[in-house]
Amino acid sequence: ERDFETAEVFPKERDKKEYKDIDILIIDRQNHKAIIIENKIYARDSNSDKDGQLERYFKRVNKKEGISKEEITTLYLTLDGHEPSDESLGAYKNLESINGQCIAYSDFIIKWLDRCIKEAANSPYLRESISQYKSLIEKHKNFLEVFDSKGEVFKTLFYYSDESMLWAANYLSL
Questions:
Q1: What is the structure's pLDDT at 106?
Q2: How far apart are CA 157 and CA 126, in angstroms?
């Protein structure tokens, strides 16, 4: 279990801006740790002639933020847990070399939310928000975009709250 009490989450709650194109970045500059989460829902990797997407993100956090390679965790989040392309990994060749793992909404995220629900036992509002969110994910199989009764995209307060994401990161055990 990692301690992310001094961490910062991107995208930010206020402006929703990603950190240099990384879908979700949880970075603790004080303790020199980071989690990169690349979310792939019906999308291809954004590779270039120079480098692969995951390669670029890993190097960016390592070099620009000064986080050692050993302290960066890379999560490749997809509906079914499939592997990233070789092109996305670039020079790294495999997920292990970027401390990576594939995770799926249908498995990992549901189990993680179950843990969050237990941890929030003494916070009824948060617990029920997470529980409702889990129900929507189970129905739609999607962590970031779920749909309301009118079929419109519904982003939960849990996702948009920096505090909630930091709270969740404290219980994200890899």
A1: 73
A2: 10
